[in-house]
Each structure stands twice: as structure tokens, then as C-alpha cells.
Specification:
Length: 282
């Protein structure tokens, strides 16, 4: 697939983990993002990338990063090795694409504004630095979540952005399949600087229930089932807060009738790195 075809481009949900992903060269998660990035650049060949990250939640609206030259990055994390605060990621934005995103969201009756100051957060630049270390002429635009918005709202955001897929643009929701940071840090070994590899009782069952929705259904059925996850008995163990979960709702909304395919998963403690491709054809 390439950007000069009429095929609808895939969209994705990725689990981005923490900033150490950049330097954990031997980890399976790092290797996955390298392989995925190779596929994106050599097979999919997008014109641009739009990312909705867990780490940007605007109050009462959606904000769209609007840069033309190099887009700054922010180090929105604390307590990590100094090496991580020296990381750079040289990417550029696109004012034209940002304006197009704003128009699509306004047509869908969302309140949306441009943001010309906030850089890419680690939910964007960390996985993309591993996947696409030198984006060159590939514009990257970040779109915020809306704080405390419903699951249905986030699905509708994805639907509004879906036409971008027909223009050679990748849409990526960046969060975590399962994300209980508190439980995971309570099992963190500070002597070895590693998380416990023991998987907590809710992690895999919740991930498997998500698989049944994301992979085994599509279209409105998938959207409705994701919206109903608000009542899942394990939800607040798997996701005490919603910000790492709802990028999946955005991606599913953008996916429409395209089936989901699990690209990768690893589980430890209260975390699942499930990542999904939504694509009409293999």
C-alpha cells in the first residue's frame, strides 16, 4: 500500500509504555516498535501521521497541535534516568493538516482549537522515536483527548477523523491495553529497577475480553461494545482512570468496518501492551 493508491489506510491503537522504551533495546516491546515502524515506512508509506495520546487531555474541548517547522517535544515524566531527558526527536508538523483536522472536528460539532505551543508528549515521541527515528518529511500532528469525556464521545472523535485515512494519513491512538500504574509501581523492585513480571489477576482476563470486542467484531457492534465497557467488572482495576483506555475508542471509531488484528502483546503486573491494527486488507 502506498499513498498514491485509493485504498483506505490502516489505523492503529498502540500501547506506548513509559519513556524507558527508547533505551530498552533488548526488550520485546522495543523490538516490536522497530518492526512496526519498518512496515509503516516501507509498506504503508503514509503522507502524515495523526496521534491521539493519553497524555494530552484538554478541558472542555479538543486541541490540535499546529506547527509547520520542527515540533518541540516535552518531557512529561519524572524520576527517570537523566539520559531520557536528553533524548531528541526531530519531527515537523503541518499547519495544513492541523487545519483539516480542525475542520473535520468542527463539522462533527466538536469544540476544537489550534495549539501552537505544546510539544509532542511521550505518548507520541517515545514510541515513534523507536519506530520512525528519523521522520524526515513525514509530518506528525497530535490531537488531544477531552478530559472526562464519555466513551461514546471518543468513538465519535474517531469517526470524525476517519476521512483522513482516505488521504494517505495514519491515525494512531496511543495508550495502554491495560494500565494500572499504582498496582505496578507497588511491585517495583528498586534494587533491580524493574517491575515485577508477575501478572495480576485482572490483567489477562480484561485484555482477553477486549480482544473479543476489538478483533472479533467491527463497525457499530464493536463501537457499542467498547462503549459498554464502562460496566465491565474489571474496568477500574484494569484502568483506574480512562486516559490510557479511550485512545482505543478513538481508533475504533476511525476504523469503521475494518477488522482488527492484534499486532503485539506482552503483560506484566497491572499492564498489557496490546497493540492493534485496523485494516480492510492484509
Amino acid at each position: 500500500m502506498s499513498s498514491d493508491t485509493s485504498s483506505r489506510f490502516p489505523c492503529y491503537f498502540i500501547s506506548h509504555g513509559g519513556p524507558t522504551l527508547v533505551i530498552d533495546y533488548k526488550n520485546d516491546e522495543h523490538k516490536f516498535f522497530q518492526q512496526w515502524g519498518n512496515k509503516v515506512l516501507k509498506e504503508i508509506k503514509p503522507k502524515a501521521i495523526v496521534v491521539i495520546s493519553a497524555h494530552w487531555q484538554a478541558k472542555g474541548e479538543i486541541r490540535v497541535g499546529k506547527f509547520e517547522g520542527e515540533t518541540p517535544i516535552i518531557y512529561d515524566f519524572g524520576g527517570f534516568a537523566e539520559e531520557l531527558y536528553r533524548q531528541k526527536y526531530q519531527s515537523k508538523g503541518s499547519q495544513e493538516l492541523a487545519d483539516k483536522i480542525i475542520d473535520l472536528l468542527k463539522k462533527a460539532e466538536f469544540k476544537v482549537t489550534a495549539d501552537t505551543t505544546r510539544g509532542l508528549d511521550h505518548g507520541v515521541w517515545v514510541p515513534l522515536k523507536v519506530a520512525i527515528p528519523d521522520p524526515k518529511d513525514l509530518p506528525i500532528v497530535q490531537v488531544s483527548l477531552t478530559r472526562q469525556a464519555s466513551y461514546e464521545y471518543n468513538v465519535k472523535v474517531g469517526r470524525a477523523l476517519a476521512p483522513l485515512r482516505d488521504e494517505g494519513i495514519l491515525i494512531i491512538g496511543s495508550g495502554m491495553y491495560v494500565h494500572n500504574l499504582s498496582d505496578s509501581f507497588s511491585r517495583f523492585d528498586r534494587e533491580t529497577n524493574t517491575f515485577s513480571q508477575d501478572v495480576l489477576p485482572y490483567t489477562v482476563p480484561f485484555a482477553r475480553d477486549l480482544d473479543k470486542i476489538v478483533i472479533d467484531s467491527k463497525g457499530e457492534e464493536r463501537e457499542n461494545q467498547l462503549i459498554k465497557m464502562i460496566d465491565h467488572p474489571l474496568l477500574r482495576q484494569a484502568h483506574p482512570t480512562d486516559e490510557h483506555f479511550v485512545p482505543l475508542h478513538v481508533a475504533a471509531g476511525a476504523a469503521g468496518q475494518d477488522p482488527g488484528k492484534k499486532m503485539f502483546e506482552s503483560c506484566f503486573s497491572g499492564m498489557s501492551w496490546g497493540s492493534v491494527e485496523f485494516c480492510a486488507s492484509e
